[in-house]
Amino acid sequence: MGRPGLDRRQLLAALGGLTVAGSFGFAALGTGADALASGADTRVRYWNLFSGGDGYNMIAMLDSFRKDNPGIDVKDSTLQWGSPFYTKLAMAAAGNRAPELGVMHLGRVTGFSPGRLLDPWDVELLARYGVKEADFNPELWKRAVVDGRLYALPLDIHVQLCFYRKDVLKKARLLDAEGRMIPVTSTDEWFDVLKEAKKATGKGLQTIGLWHNDQNFQWWFFVAFYTQLGGTWFDDSRTEVTFDTEKATRVLEFLHRHITDGYADPNFGGGAGAEQFVNGAPFVWEGNWSVPVFDAAKIEYGATPLPTVFGRPATHAESHAFVLPHQSGRGGAANEGAHRLAAYIVRHARQWAAGGHIPAYTPTLSTDAYRKMRPQSEYVSAMDHQATEPKVWFAGSTGILAQRIGPVVVSSTTGSAGPDAVARRMKSELGRLLASKNPMDGRTAAQGGAVA
After folding, report:
1. Is this prediction's pTM over 0.85?
2. Stretch 99-122: mean pLDDT, rounded?
3. What is the rounded distance in angstroms from the CA atom of residue 119 to the CA atom of residue 93?
4. β-bridge mates for residue 320, sequence order
5. How far apart are CA 336 and CA 66, in angstroms?
6. How many Å is the Cα radius of gyration of the chain?
7. What is the per-residue pLDDT across 245-258, written as a single tens digit (0 to 9) for each?
8. What is the pLDDT of residue 4?
9. Surface-to-core class of residue 216, CB atoms within 10 Å of its CB (0-12 exposed, 13-18 middle, 19+ buried)
10. What backbone phi and psi angles, to 5 degrees, belong to 276?
């Protein structure tokens, strides 16, 4: 890319002087001096952010890879999710102490200085191990490309869903002949559904949980419904804000109405929506990662993408993707091992689907085994209707965009600020972010090569 790299001290300064040394410890970055597993001749260090059910599924997939590839010693490390993970990964890449393989949210790749902190994938090598562009949703693959090169290999998409209790909706006559929630095509139809569901809901339970006071979830829901309206963010050159305040106001009014009409209880916060759902509430809007939780609760439920209330199907989607953190001497057997490992997991993602995620490798979706998975097969259509954040450096999971805009959306949903005023404030904030510089490389979105 023709630009000098950042050393670790410059990177820390760019990130605002984060106290990384005290909170993480540089020693945790690893030296690569640990011994190879017995019988292996190649080591692949792999950093990920998967915990809970995701972590167990990933461990099972890694164990399968080790069994099938005894010549490769995989040293996997699970780090803290969110900003700490990204800061640590950036420092490792800047200090030439990066692992051979890592995981990122796809929305964060553009801001991670591809070509400086990330190395591009060798698509011919991936193809040799059975993974090629034709195996992926075109829009998903396009998001992984920066400046004409592949910098992320998608593993999945994870989406926001409308979970529903079949027992309550059956009582309310809101299930179709196949036992699924009746389709919704407008805001009026959606609130009619909530009205009937409320009549069948037990005392002390809200009708729907929608994380009304959580900045991340409210931002994700906004992105979904704003996309349904065909809303845009910036022009193609990333020099002008095209955010539509009228469309934004419609979305904000829609979210707020759940509280004013008495379907979401403002006294319930955090994860209370999921808890109430398990106890008999008819609806909750949650990420697909809640599937194992609701499966374990032994309740009869279904899940669909967020309701299509504004005419165009769209539900918020992010993606876990494999990346190659920058190594000055990347290549050889370890690099090939990283390609082999990532391709293997992507191709054997049915185990990963058990955690609720939709595998990015589309041949998996057409298998009989996946079609029999419930409720996963019910919401697989979300792959073709992804509502994603704009492809700019400040977007992506737990990114600056969500941190700045999310609380503003919450203020509208909960009623502490008016939707029209919030929409205007959102547009102003988008303008400030568009003019700001990425601390990773000192470039604005217009200068950042964000267009695939």
Report:
1. yes
2. 92
3. 10
4. 105
5. 15
6. 22
7. 999 999 999 999 99
8. 36
9. middle
10. -65, -35
